[in-house]
Amino acid sequence: MINIEEAFGTKEKRGLIGWPALAVLMESFQEFFIFKGTNIGQTFLIFISAMVVFAIGCVILYKQ
To answer: Which of 14, 19, 34, 43 has a 20 to 30 Å separation from 8 between CA atoms?
Structure first.
């Protein structure tokens, strides 16, 4: 079983926070260079929505 307190209490915290932040940053740079503009709020909202859907899916699968 996954212990959330343990994950945030170790070096894993850097990965849990760092990878999604890096993904948002890289997506924003890509949009800026390809489309000549970016909306960081919209990009952040899309990533948050994807994380919520993924978390709900994990919870549903975990309960089965």
So the answer is: 43
pLDDT tens digits for range 2-22: 666 665 666 666 776 778 778
Residue among 14, 13, 19, 8 nearest 51 (CA): 19
Question: How many domains are there within the chain?
Answer: 1
Which range of residues forms the domain containing residue 52?
4-63
pTM of the predicted model, to two decimals?
A: 0.55
- Please, which residues have CB within 8 angstroms of residue 31's CB and are 6 or more apart in sequence? 37, 38, 39, 43
Do residues 14 and 21 lie in contact, with contact meaning Cβ atoms separated by under 8 Å?
Answer: no
The whole-angstrom separation of Cα 32 and Cα 60 is 36
